């Protein structure tokens, strides 16, 4: 059985949105200047753009915006186009912000006008274009922080924050699902494949901030381990039961102190409860903002404050898993 293709192809409409051009101009560049030659869908003969095609169009578009004529640059290789962009005078470089900033700007502008479908489309296109990890660190986390700051200073409403959260959640769940699926397909097609660790993720009951654990679950899968995502708001007894059921090697609990109804004590109680109920061979990782102080607990629980250090820890407990799963 052959492994299903995970290579993403884009329609002309999506491509146009990503590179900020209109479809008509893209077709004209192809027809008149042979700037690129995308594949065609066998069923309906529609254009299908690869990630490389999108990168090429983006380079051409940026150079044209900087004053080059498409007829002069259409036949050049991507390497030469990149070199030309890098050697442009400083002002021109400043004029072309990184693509992540464009995406963030467009999402914020759409959220200002409550154009939720636009944000959805924007994030969907971005998610398919860049790696899962890049999407998390360069798009999802900055977007949540930006919107959080706007709610805090009163320029965005709580409704806008909730809308963004639910759109982003759907996108990240889809990424998690794709990665999880890729792991399952791999295990099925290559029976000799060594399996990753079994890792449970949740937040404490009362803590509704789930993006830390959702992002962590994606990193876990990206490293080739098997994430069991139980979402936010899970009582310790239920998490301990689940960890036993899936024979977990590690349990990861995400933490945001705002949701702490009983102060620091609440994290301690939860961690202690978990420690008493799960197998001693199962590690407990305490992610995000940790308020644990008890030395005995800190002996048993590993604190991990950032997503970057989660990735490092995942690699050190299982060093062969260098980013094995990609979609
Ligand atoms: C989205 C959001 C919500 C959503 C959550 C939706 C969801 N499905 O998750 C909703 C609307 C439910 C919500 C509710 C509340 N929220 Co809120 N929320 C946010 C917001 C905007 C984004 C948080 C987020 O997900 N960020 C993305 C994560 C990935 O990034 P991060 O939180 O910065 O975490 C970093 C690290 O800590 C670490 N990390 C975090 N978790 C984990 C987990 C693991 C395993 C690891 C390894 C690492 C890790 O990695 C991240 C990247 O470096 C922040 C604003 C902000 N500036 O952060 C407020 C914020 C966290 N919320 C806050 C508050 C006060 C609340 C409420 C009490 C508001 C209210 N009055 O009702 C409630 C509490 C609800 C509850 N019981 O939990 C405060 C917390 C203040 C504080 N430090 O005490 C913030 C900072 C807003 C503010 N400026 O006041 N919130």
Task: Compile the SSE list and pairings.
Blueprint: H1 12-19, H2 23-33, E1 39-40, E2 47-48, H3 51-65, H4 70-73, H5 78-86, H6 90-95, H7 99-112, H8 116-129, H9 132-152, H10 158-189, E3 198-203, H11 211-222, E4 226-229, H12 236-245, E5 250-255, H13 265-277, E6 283-288, H14 295-300, E7 301-304, H15 307-317
Parallel strand pairs: 3-4, 3-5, 5-6, 6-7
Antiparallel strand pairs: 1-2
Helix pairs in contact: 3-5, 7-8, 7-9, 8-10, 9-10, 9-11, 10-11, 11-15, 12-13
Bound molecules: cobalamin.
What does it look like?
With 327 residues, this protein is an alpha/beta fold. It has 3 domains: 12-95, Orthogonal Bundle (Multidrug-efflux Transporter Regulator, Chain: A, Domain 2), CATH 1.10.1660; 114-174; 194-317, Cobalamin-binding domain (Rossmann fold), CATH 3.40.50.280. Helix content is 57%, strand content 9%. It is built from 15 helices and 7 strands. The strands form 2 sheets. The chain has a 5-stranded parallel beta sheet, with helices on both faces. It has a two-stranded antiparallel sheet with strand order 1-2. It is elongated and about 70 Å long. Residues 1-6, 90-96 and 320-327 have low confidence and may be disordered. The site of cobalamin has 33 residues, from helix 9, helix 10, helix 11, strand 5 and strand 6.
